[in-house]
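so my prof wants the structure for this chain in the tokens format not the other one, which i didnt know existed until like an hour ago. anyway here's the sequence
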Amino acid sequence: MRIARVRRWPVEFGLYNAIYVQIETEDGLVGEAEVAMRRRTRSVVALIDEMADNLVGVDATRIERIQERLYRDAFLGGTLLTIAISAIDQALWDLNARALGVPVHRLLGGAFRDEVLLYTHAAASGSPEGLAAGVRDRVERGFRAVKTTLPGFYEKVTSVRHDRAPLVAPHHTETEILSPWVFGYIAEYFAAAREAAGRDVHLMLDCHGRLNVANAIRLAEALEPYGLTFIEEPVPFERLDWLREVSGRVSTPIAAGERWGNHLTSAPFIESHAVAVAQPDVGLCGGITAARRIANLAEAHAISIAFHNPLGPLQSAATWHLAATLPNFMISESLFIPEQAAYWERYVVGAPVVEGGVWHPTEGPGLGPTLNVRELDRSEPNLVLDLGGTR
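here's what i got, hopefully its the right format
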């Protein structure tokens, strides 16, 4: 089962660009995948093209070997590289499962659980009442878990700009002084969110690494009464020692890992217990193969997995097939919100079904969804998203 060609389509997906990949074998079998980028879309596409040149004629059944070669032969590594590897890896798992007529989770050892718990997002912009309304809406849609960003730091954020000026400047660094009102202000939002959610709904906060150690501890202490399931990236994700210090000094679980590369870059964070919750991204760390390695390492250290996945239908399917097989899986992110829903149906046929805030493992072949190639052929990415502008 040798690879004949690799195709890719970068397309706009609302809040970001998606890159869809299709691997076809000499005997006509096909595997498909999705990754996404808010920035550097063209760089990842170029990396996929370079990898494709080296994949023609390779045995598509040797997923572990291909994963290793793509990473080791690049020499320099980095997450742009592992995003491109993620696309190839996911497509290979889809291809191999389809060749055997089984779902991907069967190739991964079979389902450990009958449902995969998901969380969604509600915006923390405008007012505590606005966040409360967003949380209430998500709960009414069936979700049992909701995450938001730092109030005051993000105000109606798009991928390239703040549509309204936030109270804390977008390029404010973790070493600059914060106004005395900040922590009380954030607490007001979570007081309103908890009241709206009730006691049984999980609430989570993503800080995008905006704080230093002292301020991260102050934040966790201010939010302790509201029982957050985790605080994500309170300090810059690169600093293992900072994450470990915060984790050791607060009661709220600390999460990080969405920007890890493969198991090699994640190992120090896991082995030192710098986080209580690991958040690998199947579309960033090197695909299903790399994410499973990270999850297995985390399990040996009693660390839960909460997949980062604010993405579309094919990557969501890949993430959730893996999640269904993991004993230490806790929850997975989902950007299945009204603003993004139309894109789920646009680019694939048979998008994953989310009901009651969960996904149930499917029994069809591969990942389940298949690409709508006709729609992909007439779509283009929004390369303005490559400009950046938010942290």
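also thought this was worth mentioning. Residues 3-101 form a domain with the Enolase-like; domain 1 fold (CATH 3.30.390.10).
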